[in-house]
TrEMBL record:
Belongs to the binding-protein-dependent transport system permease family. The keyword Transmembrane applies. GO terms for cellular component: plasma membrane. This is Carbohydrate ABC transporter membrane protein 2 (CUT1 family). The chain crosses the membrane at residues 32-54, 93-117, 129-150, 162-183, 204-229, 266-283. The keyword Transmembrane applies. CDD domains: TM_PBP2. Keywords: Cell membrane, Membrane, Transmembrane, Transmembrane helix, Transport.
Length: 299
């Protein structure tokens, strides 16, 4: 007895079916509306960025004149960028930003991971109170801590050093809480099996928990780095030495030397943002994945 198997169309046959193609090409009104809203939001977000980039290409007189002109009579020029580069120590400030942001990221991730793991897995006296204090500290505005932190740097004689920029930024309560919540979701059975095999707590953390936490560690690292790179207020307070300044602080001193000049302001803003834009182009997949998995939207 033989069984007749009904013929099944191949993918090429289904794709070649005109009705199927028409159904696929049919776009619902909701889809059109969603795309229209996304385009409006994208234009709204990009407009200030494009305006800043365009203003940086104008002369200061044209930038300060009333009305909005895309291309002025004198044309667009890169002279403002050249002036800012020649007036300051941009390569040195860029190196300082890279050095301090990298150090802050490494130390912050290490401290936050250790603290988050301890709060997630270890039972010690005062654990709940410690966690409550950490969560409550998230609500404290950073500006309130500027005076005591500055006094500490004075007492330690660290002003105008890299450590004065780095140390006050390495404690990040939100990152401790985020990592603690992520560690809570890792099955305890994995660690119990490792303990039966004789693994120490530190070995479990380094060889089991950390590899499983790569997505959240990557997300935390990216957002801490971006926050440290963009931080202007504390590096501006902690140092007056032009050789120690970070890129945002150094560029601001150049602009201040020229007085109120909108074209120079926009040129230095664009120059300060370029490294982060390049970093985003390289790590956009990890950044989007980090936002999706952790809910972090910026620091």
């Amino acid at each position: 007895m033989t069984t007749t198997v009904p013929a099944v169309g191949t993918d090429a046959d289904r794709v070649a079916d005109p009705k199927a193609v028409a159904r696929k090409r049919r776009v619902s009104p909701l889809t059109v509306l969603a795309y229209a809203l996304l385009i409006i939001v994208a234009i709204t977000w990009l407009a200030p960025v494009l305006w800043a980039a365009l203003t940086g290409l104008k002369s200061n007189v044209e930038a300060a004149s009333p009305g909005f002109v895309i291309i002025p009579e004198g044309g667009l020029s890169l002279q403002n960028y050249a002036d800012v580069l020649q007036a300051g120590l941009v390569p040195r400030w860029a190196f300082n930003s890279l050095l301090t942001a990298t150090a802050i990221t490494v130390i912050t991730v290490a401290i936050s991971a250790l603290a988050g793991y301890a709060l997630s897995r270890m039972d010690f006296p005062g654990r709940k109170i410690t966690l409550a204090v950490i969560v409550a500290s998230i609500l404290i505005p950073a500006q309130i801590l500027i005076v005591p932190l500055f006094q500490q740097m004075v007492d330690f004689n660290l002003l105008d050093t890299y450590w004065a920029i780095i140390l006050p930024q390495v404690v990040a309560a939100p990152m401790v809480f985020i990592l603690k919540k992520f560690f809570d979701a890792i099955p305890v059975e994995l660690e119990e099996a490792a303990m039966i095999d004789g693994a120490s707590r530190m070995r479990i953390l380094l060889q089991i928990v950390m590899p499983l936490s790569r997505p959240i560690l990557g997300a935390v690292s990216i957002f801490v780095f971006i926050g440290a790179w963009n931080n202007f207020l504390w590096p501006f307070i902690a140092t007056t030495d032009s050789n120690i300044m970070t890129l945002p602080v150094g560029l601001q001193t150049v602009v201040s030397g020229y007085g109120i000049t909108y074209a120079y302001d926009m040129a230095q803003a664009v120059m300060a943002a370029v490294p982060l834009i390049i970093a985003f182009l390289f790590f956009q997949r990890q950044i989007i994945k980090g936002i999706a998995t952790s809910g972090i939207t910026g620091t």
